[in-house]
Write a structure and sequence with these properties.
Radius of gyration: 19 Å
Shape: globular
Low-confidence stretches: none
Helix content: 25-40%
Strand content: 5-15%
Structural class: alpha/beta
Mean pLDDT: 94
Number of helices: 12
Order of helices and strands: EHHHHHHEHEEEEHHEHEHEH
Number of strands: 9
Amino acid sequence: MKNIFLFGAGASHGSGGLNYLTPLGSQLFFDLKKHFSNTWGSLPKDVLKKLEENFEEGMEIVWKEHSNNVGVLMQDMAVFFSKIIISNPSENLYVSLVKELKEKNILPDSVISTLNYDCLLELATIPNQISIAYSLPFGEVKDSLLVWKLHGSCNFILDGIVAKRGVNYMSGAFFNGNGLKSIQISDVEQYCRGDNALYPAMSIFMKDKPNQIGKPHIEAMQNKWKEWILNAEKIFLIGVNPDMKDSHVWDSLSETKSKIFFCGNKDSFEKWQKIKSRNDIYLGARFKECYLDIIKNL
């Protein structure tokens, strides 16, 4: 393996050519409240205030004290992300990057991983006429893009388990099924609005990113990713914020001997490097300004 990419909200936000600007973590709640006033906008006032101040801390309150609401809230979040699409492929950096990987014939040597719930990476394969591989080993990827979604996805659902609308469950309940399967992005809303109490397999946006839907399957994905990180040649971090509380991501990145190329907040990155005694490469603040340097270093 040669190249591992890890994208965060900043990458999707700055990828360009979208029908709706993907929000950063600090902006996400305001978009959810605007689009889903009857659910996200109707939580208790103290919870709304905390969500506005710090989304992760607000979600921790919801998870611990109002977890009977989590299913509906996460269904709405999944619908929200499923509606964000690449409307102008010629202006989208994900599309351009996938094209470069294909033309350089390094798709089989590359892993595209993301912390995002959106499906922009999947959509980036369409104009490039390649398919998506969510779990194939490197040797079987060939002309497919290997996409590893470490916090789940708005289009990942449980296989082999059903909970009909009206089933009430709280944070102590976990649904594992026979595994995860992907559905068409256009079918996400139907899944979430049908006779179904479950939400797609998406980690809860709070400290430690707990998984209620498909927990063992997402954790298996994360563990495999850690192995790859420790053995990669080059790692590109784009639009992610170093957050050592998310140990399932940053522990392995701290331990790898691979050279890391970083695109994002400089102060946060340098602070992380200093704490972990690393000497990696800072490329710039935004995906667009880093893009040519990323391609140059492939």
